[in-house]
TrEMBL record:
Keywords: Signal. InterPro entries: FG-GAP, Integrin_alpha_N. It comes from the Bacteria. Pfam families: FG-GAP_3 (PF13517). SUPFAM superfamilies: Integrin alpha N-terminal domain. Residues 45-55 have a biased composition (Basic and acidic residues). Residues 1-17 form the signal peptide. Residues 23-65, 124-175 are annotated as: Disordered. It comes from Streptomyces tirandamycinicus. Residues 24-44 have a biased composition (Low complexity). This is VCBS repeat-containing protein.
């Protein structure tokens, strides 16, 4: 009988649960062709795109869910206990602990709970299995759930005497083999419980299986818990059953192939550890016993205990199943363990020592039956527990010792039994919250019972961790109070059940800063001597909601120009030059703001640089740089620098570099001497402009020679002060006397580099990028990056071609810039590919060789009938048919002339030709703007568009040998006023010219699309007269911010970028700098770069 009782008491007691449920499981791969679970990155993208919160499916666990928010932040909701479970197919579903038979009828299983749980289906189950019979009296509630309301009779006795027990089980036969009672498995651990005899078929009510009369007057209740695993409760129905000898001590076995069992001498519980790692994976808290005298609301005069056990239905309704209540007689079950340290152990409980089965209390009638015995096993990770003062060394982890596991946490004092309780919750906190910035955090829980509706203050504390060793005498340490609230809910309809919330942001931030795996919170009454403080809470309702922002990652590839990151003072030495700091940062939340760059002199508290820079790449990954001017550095000083990433919510990364020391460099300002730069092929231009590089015309090669002092370790050589190619001397890695690092733009022009020996000069064969005035520039550098002053050769490159290109006056096919400077001189600035310009040359002379002869470009004494400066325009060859681009000029005296190009970017003014106009054409003296267009009407000759002072728009065509044959007035007086003509060219590449114009007042740029002439050849100029007559019927917007106060001059030029679309040079009004634009078919686009940094504000005309 003892063996049988032992098994009945404990064979199913282990409330085994997924002790690693806080760790996300890897999502199962989706079938081919189907989408898999939504990852964090996918959720973040979808949240931004849809502007709604999106669940991160791959981070969902049994107790937590994480959402990506549209602003790049995150929200994680964590419950104290599992609220969902993963099905075999990997999908998640709500917890459903209702018991259902397996296919072969030999087991009962909960529908969907964390882990695997099975109960015996009853009737002669050997350990090896076997077919079970089905009893008609096996009451299985298939409609109920684990949370259904408990049925109790509305009339009749509150306590009944036991009836005869004809169906009671006989004493166990020791020869009967062990049979299966229950098992649970999770994460590789399986624990099996066996019964030394036959079991009756259980009555099933939702998640509960009741094995009736396992001993005379004793029932065994197994409960599949929603948190995972199960609980066990032995129900001793009356005093007669309690006096059985078999109940004096209770023994049961624990079996596992992967876990071992050991007794905790202090609490009387059992620790369950992994055999290989000794990691604690579960525990049996202090076994506990109580009677049925307690009441949840003892102050209610109508409340009475319900104790009828005559039927299974009545037993399921016992009030004592909720656990000890105020007024209950309670006691600890002392325990011993045989087989400790192994996976096969026997736990023996001294039930007689409780005094609740026999003895004075029973004799005096102070014990009310049924009596409940509840040893239970729990996991050791997140969960909750109570510290109960009447039993200062007892553990109640996850509500154990209450009805096989209560779901109600107790807080405060109750006077009936002098019970005082505090409760604690261990909330999972790992994953993405670690290291984040907490925006808000709340913890809420449902108050389901109070002593009355009178509010009392309940405090919430941040505490140390809890475990199966937590008791009243071993409470977690208090760190600090997070909040206190007065409330009372759950007494009656006047103060019904309700949630209570606390602001726990400060505690959550501390946990995030410390990368805690758990956040442990404790509730206790402010006044622990008044019954009005007594509260019960739905322990499983506790939920922690954290809204947080994950910090960016530490920047990578932190670097400085002419150096690298070195934390040791004195090891990184650079020259006195601008220092460019750069790095790349990533923010997985895609709300990266930028990178903060800091630089300071060693020992100084003031930062030279402390600036956030938004780099290129977007909100997820950015590469940024910042320049520290050499003027902020000094020779011989040591400087420190570091870089961190920052996001839009204020979260920051750690500083690059790793460790406590920043990067450092020391400045050495001992520059090498300027290199000697010589060439016979590219002679230095004289003031007269007569010695051109005739041995190396454009398109052919010439040589230069570089030499310097011994301190030089490399040279930089380039054209027109841009795009240098670097030549490193005495390359030790390659065993060579030099190494070339070519410019990606002009490096192809450096054809060969030769050096006879170490220390010898370097000979370079190269091609000039343009015809006309060209500068060859060179620098020498020493080992720490100090740069010499610049050496240069200014040379004139003759054209190597017969014909000029459109807009080209130097013969290299690239459009050039011709200007009238403020002093009235005409200059040519050769253009390079992409629209670069640099050096210029005087572009007019007379037959005597005099440069800039007067009267052609500027008249300082102009009267009201004349103009101060000429209007100039160029496109191609106008006269005398030599293939060279000529300049059309309306001179200050009001006449129109052709100034023939000489192929070198200049013109002999003595050779100018007067242009004849049709009789109906407006006099050139009245012209305000003119644009040569090339041939746009298809007659093979250049055309001209003119704006008069009166605001008329004219189109001149039929040009032949210095004369225009036809003049068409497109707009009458005043119509064009307030507009600037920019270009007449094919902008959208449809084969027909368009008109580009701007409103200088509002800054809008427009295209007026032209129509082809009748027959489809060339432009019909009338289609450009008004928007209504154009191809689209309206002027099409092409750009904004082109006001005269922003851009005061715009020069249309043929394509320089290679896309076929005409480009623009523009003068910035505030600086006089020249910018180049590479428009598209539909927009001017932003400026590509500034190509001339000199102030050209005084220049009078540009073409």
């Amino acid at each position: 009988m003892a063996a049988l009782l032992s098994a009945a008491l404990v064979a199913g007691l282990l409330a085994w649960a997924p002790w690693n449920s806080g760790t996300p499981r890897a999502a199962k791969p989706a079938p081919e062709g189907e989408a898999g679970p939504v990852t964090a990155a996918q959720a973040a993208r979808e949240a931004r795109a849809t502007e709604r919160d999106v669940l991160v499916e791959t981070e969902t666990t049994e107790s937590s869910r994480t959402f990506a928010l549209p602003d790049g932040t995150w929200r994680t909701e964590t419950h104290a206990v599992p609220v969902r479970a993963q099905r075999p197919d990997g999908t998640w579903a709500p917890i459903d602990a209702r018991l259902r038979p397996t296919g072969d009828g030999t087991r009962l299983r909960p529908v969907n709970v964390p882990g695997a749980v099975e109960f015996a289906a009853g009737a002669s189950r050997t350990a090896g299995g076997g077919k079970a019979s089905r009893s008609a009296s096996n009451a299985v509630d298939r409609a109920g759930t684990a949370a259904t309301a408990v049925w109790r009779p509305t009339g009749g006795r509150s306590q009944v005497q036991p009836a005869a027990r004809p169906g009671s089980q006989p004493a166990a036969d020791p020869a009967v083999p062990e049979t299966f009672l229950a098992s649970t498995s999770y994460e590789g651990h399986t624990v099996t419980y066996t019964w030394p005899g036959e079991l009756p078929e259980p009555a099933v009510d939702g998640n509960r299986a009741l094995y009736r009369e396992v001993l005379p007057g004793v029932d065994l209740l197994l409960v599949a818990r929603e948190v995972g695993g199960f609980g066990q409760l032995l129900i001793v129905k009356d005093e007669e059953a309690a006096r059985q000898k078999a109940l004096r001590t209770v023994s049961y076995g624990l079996r596992s192939d992967t876990a071992a069992f050991s007794l905790d001498a202090e609490t009387g519980g059992v620790a369950i550890t992994d055999k290989d790692s000794d990691e604690v994976v579960g525990a049996i808290p202090t076994p506990f016993a109580w009677d049925s005298a307690g009441l949840e609301s003892p102050e209610d005069p109508a409340a009475k205990p319900y104790t009828d056990t005559t039927t299974a239905r009545n037993t399921f309704a016992l009030t004592g199943l909720t656990g000890p209540e105020p007024g209950s007689a309670t006691a600890i079950l002392p325990a011993t363990l045989d087989g400790g340290g192994t996976g096969s152990a026997t736990l023996t409980l001294d039930a007689a020592a409780t005094g609740l089965l026999t003895g004075d209390l029973v004799d005096r009638g102070e014990v009310r039956f049924p009596v409940f015995l509840d040893p239970t096993v729990e996991r050791t990770e997140k969960g909750w527990t109570m510290a109960y003062k009447p039993y200062p060394n007892s553990n109640f982890y996850n509500g154990t010792n209450f009805s096989g596991g209560t779901d109600e946490a107790r807080v405060g004092y109750e006077s009936n039994t002098g019970g005082l309780s505090r409760s604690y919750w261990k909330m999972n906190f790992g994953g993405g919250i670690a290291g984040s910035t907490v925006i808000s955090a709340t913890w809420k829980i449902k108050n389901v019972h109070s002593w009355s509706c009178e509010a009392r203050q309940i405090e919430l504390w941040l505490t140390g961790s809890i475990s199966t060793s937590t008791t009243w005498n071993n409470q977690p340490g208090k760190k600090r109070q997070l909040g206190a609230k007065s409330f009372a809910h759950g007494y009656n309809s006047s103060c019904p059940d309700a949630y209570v919330g606390y602001d726990v942001k400060s505690g959550a931030q501390e946990a995030a800063n410390g990368s805690w795996d758990y956040l442990t919170l404790g509730l206790e009454a402010s006044t622990e001597t008044s019954s009005y403080s007594w509260r019960k809470f739905d322990a499983g309702s506790a939920v922690l909601t954290v809204h947080y922002n994950r910090p960016p990652q530490q920047p990578v590839n932190g670097d400085i120009s002419n150096g690298s990151c070195n934390t040791v003072i004195g090891e990184e030495v650079i020259g006195l030059t601008d220092v460019v700091m750069s790095a790349t940062a990533t923010d997985l939340d895609s709300n990266l703001k930028g990178l903060r760059f800091r630089l300071w002199e060693n020992g100084a508290s003031t930062k030279i640089l402390d600036k956030v820079v938004t780099g290129s790449g977007g909100s997820k990954t950015q590469t940024a740089s910042v320049t520290v001017p050499e003027s902020q550095l000094a020779d011989g000083k040591t400087y420190s620098w570091d870089i961190r990433a920052e996001d839009t919510e204020g979260a920051v990364s750690t500083y690059f570099p790793d460790g406590s020391d920043p990067c450092r460099f020391t400045v050495d300002d001992t520059a090498p001497a300027a290199p000697t730069l010589t060439s016979t092929d590219f002679p230095e231009a004289n003031s007269e402009g007569s010695n051109w590089a005739v041995e190396a015309p454009h398109g052919t090669s010439g040589t230069v020679v570089l030499d310097s002092s011994a301190s030089a370790t490399r040279y930089a050589i380039g054209f027109n002060s841009i795009d240098y190619t670097h030549i490193y001397l005495d390359d030790p890695a390659g065993g060579q006397t030099f190494r070339i690092d070519r410019s990606p733009v002009t490096g192809h022009l450096i054809e060969t580099v030769t050096r006879a020996a170490k220390g010898a000069p370097v000979t370079i064969t190269l091609k000039a990028p343009t015809a006309g005035p060209t500068y060859i520039h060179a620098y020498a550098y020493d080992a720490v990056g100090n740069r010499s002053v610049r050496s240069q050769i200014r040379t004139f490159i003759p054209s190597g071609r017969t014909d000029d290109g459109p807009g080209d006056v130097t013969g290299d096919t690239q459009p050039d810039l011709v200007v009238i400077r403020g002093d009235g001189s005409l200059y040519t600035y050769p253009g390079e590919k992409g629209g670069e310009v640099y050096g210029g040359l005087i572009a007019s002379y007379d037959g005597t060789g005099r440069q800039t002869p007067p009267g052609h470009w500027y008249d300082a004494g102009a009267t009201a009938t004349t103009k101060k400066h000429a209007l100039i325009s160029k496109w191609g060859d106008l006269h005398p048919g030599d293939g060279l681009t000529d300049i059309l000029a309306r001179t200050p005296d009001g006449k129109l002339w052709i100034y023939p190009g000489d192929g070198y970017g200049s013109t002999n003014t003595d050779e100018r030709v007067r242009v004849l106009l049709p009789d109906n054409a407006p006099a050139p003296a009245t012209w305000d703007e003119m644009r040569t267009t090339g041939d746009v009407n298809g007659d093979g000759e250049a055309d001209l568009m003119v704006i008069t002072d009166a605001g008329q728009l004219w189109f001149l065509s039929g040009y032949t040998a210095g004369a225009f044959a036809e003049a068409v007035k497109l707009l009458a007086d005043g119509t064009w006023a307030g507009r600037d003509l920019i270009n007449v060219a094919d902008v959208d590449l449809d084969g027909t010219a368009d008109m580009l114009w701007r409103n200088p007042s509002n800054g809008n740029m427009y295209i007026r699309h032209g129509k082809p002439a009748a027959g489809g050849k060339g432009l019909d100029p009338v289609s450009l007269s008004t928007a209504a007559k154009s191809r689209e019927g309206v002027d099409t917007p092409y750009g904004t911010s082109w006001t005269a106060t922003n851009i005061d001059q715009i020069i249309a030029i043929p394509d320089t970028s290679g896309d076929g679309i005409p480009d623009l040079w523009a003068r910035e009004a505030s600086t006089g700098n020249i910018r180049v634009y590479h428009p598209s078919k539909t927009n001017t686009n932003p400026p590509v770069k500034t190509v001339m940094t000199a102030d050209w504000s005084s220049y009078l005309a540009l073409t």
